[in-house]
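Quick start: load a record and inspect it. Here is Nucleoside diphosphate kinase:
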Amino acid sequence: MIVLQRCIFMRIGQQFCSRNQETTKSLVSGFPTALLGGHRAAGLRSRSTLPNVRERTLIAVKPDGVQRRLVGQIIQRFEQRGFKLVGLKMLQVSEDLLSQHYCELRTKPFYPSLLLYMTSGPVVVMVWEGYNVVQTSRTMVGHTNPAEAQAGTVRGDFSFHVSRNVVHASDSLEGAQREIQLWFQGSELLNWDCCDQTSTCEL
Ligand code: DAT
Ligand code: MG
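Running the structure step on this input writes:
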């Protein structure tokens, strides 16, 4: 019991210290630490030598996924895989935000219907963190066209048409950074230590 109490106090102490270090560093560097969060935190806290343990990606449950009450199942897949949730919110997306998010698709014939679909109801948008999370998430989400997505992927299990493919996942590290900045304020993302961190992150 005493050992357990000591562990808890040590843990609280570590978190308090790391939060203070974070604030100081943020003020000094002027960088949005939440976005760089992981890489900076890796230097302070993680024993890992792998560079992308604290990688982050943007995942969004699209309006059809929210309407069909799939949010919980989608979150569960990312938790089960061992990734860490560092940001989450529900919102009705504006056309302005969407046009920035999908800026590469503006000239596509399906773009107007994509905007209508994405603004048809609320979306749940999240930032997940973990080793190689950008690429792994794309694999977990599956092919853009659910008709070609493998069973076991989110799109392969929950959808059948490209115009209602349930979920968004950033497609590259650069894309993830751009999208996270677009959808989240730095203050909406949390740097926190998972209690299973030693088994999932400190490889
Ligand atoms: P992804 O979402 O897999 O990154 P994308 O970036 O090429 O795919 O396209 C963004 C979204 O646009 C996609 O999830 C669904 C929609 N979309 C893509 N191709 C489409 C098509 N041929 N017809 C209708 N919607 C399409
Ligand atoms: Mg894409």
